[in-house]
Write a structure and sequence with these properties.
The model has no long low-confidence stretch (mean pLDDT 94). This protein is α/β, with parallel strands linked by helices. It has helices spanning 39-46, 74-78, 89-102, 115-126, 151-158, 168-182, 191-205, 210-221, 225-228, 248-257, 278-289; strands spanning 3-6, 9-16, 23-27, 51-55, 108-113, 131-137, 235-240, 262-266. The protein has a single domain (3-289), classed as Rossmann fold (3-Layer(aba) Sandwich). Strands 1-2-4-3-5-6-7-8 form an eight-stranded mixed β-sheet, with helices on both faces. It has eleven helices and eight strands. The radius of gyration is 18 Å and the shape is globular. Helix 3 (89-102) crosses helix 4 and helix 5 packs antiparallel against helix 6 (168-182).
Length: 292
């Protein structure tokens, strides 16, 4: 797996398609790895005329883990304070730009899901000269007035995750239970596929505490609406009608904050991107990017 260094962070990445084609950067979500962008999804996107790049964010997979950082102070966050955090979303945005720099890519189409959508928003708003287009999938603006996540999902995100070393079975049960909570409610839940993905992430480099650090990075970034008003690239906002983590108004709010953005609600999609939704999402991305 290729690795580049960006601002002191090692980033593992993989590229699909013609390296001379316009770059399309896929940015992964909270606590997940680049393999959540499936090879089939990446290959199909590359077939639309792009060099598709997926990578592990810092603190995930084969990229640098910030394992020596203290645990975030969530009590201070809940009380409205701004505690010291190991890193912020802005740092993760700089990581992504550093990856593009290392690959000698001046401008790219940005596609992010969940937290990755927020990182893509920050890049597009702060670095319009690097952004060919923005696609924000199942993300949010950080607007505090928006509907909160389902309580049971927040409990799972903020609560302890079983240690896979001491109790692998409990770890897998926890990961599968969370996957069920955020999945598209109208589709059959493929337990074998989700189990295989959880095990693959565990083998690649899952680490206790990393998700909490990324939640803290999201929390301290705050409300991005004022910044999103500065996005000048063509923009697409994709959001599931059945998303329990960021309900549909989060997508509507994101599209409203970005000048000229197209809003694409996806009926029945939860806070995941299973294969039955790939064709529609890829078609929409190709349209906003001007691809084939």
């Amino acid at each position: 797996m290729p690795v580049v260094s960006a601002h002191g962070i090692d980033l593992a990445y993989e590229s699909f398609g013609d390296e001379a084609a316009p770059a399309l950067l896929l940015i992964a979500g909270l606590g997940t790895q680049m393999i959540r962008w499936s090879e089939d999804f990446c290959t199909r996107l590359a077939g639309r005329g792009f060099r598709v790049i997926r990578f592990d964010n810092r603190d995930s997979g084969l990229s640098t883990h910030i394992s020596d950082a203290p645990a975030p102070d969530f009590a201070a966050l809940m009380a409205g304070g701004r505690p010291v955090v190991p890193y912020a979303l802005a740092d993760m945005a700089q990581d992504a730009l550093g990856l593009l720099d290392a690959l000698a890519i001046e401008r790219a189409h940005l596609v992010g899901r969940s937290m990755g959508g927020m990182i893509a928003q920050i890049i597009a708003a702060s670095n319009p000269e690097r952004t060919l287009s923005l696609t924000s999938i199942m993300a949010t603006t950080g607007n505090p007035a928006l509907p909160p996540p389902a309580p049971e999902i927040m409990a799972m995100l903020l609560g302890p995750t079983p240690d896979p070393i001491s109790d692998a079975a409990a770890f897998l049960r926890h990961r599968l239970a969370f996957a069920r909570c955020i999945a598209a409610p109208g589709l059959p839940f493929d337990e074998a596929e989700h189990r295989a993905l959880a095990l693959a992430e565990l083998r690649r480099g899952w680490q206790q505490g990393a998700t909490a650090r990324q939640i803290a990075a999201i929390a301290v970034d705050g409300d991005r609406r004022d910044r999103l008003a500065h996005v000048t690239a063509p923009a697409l906002v994709i959001h599931g009608s059945a998303d329990p983590l960021f309900p549909l108004p989060h997508g509507q709010d994101t599209a409203s904050a970005i000048p000229g953005a197209r809003f694409m609600p996806v009926e029945g999609m939860g806070h995941d991107l299973p294969a039955p939704f790939h064709a529609a999402v890829i078609d929409a991305i190709a349209q906003v990017t001007g691809g084939a």
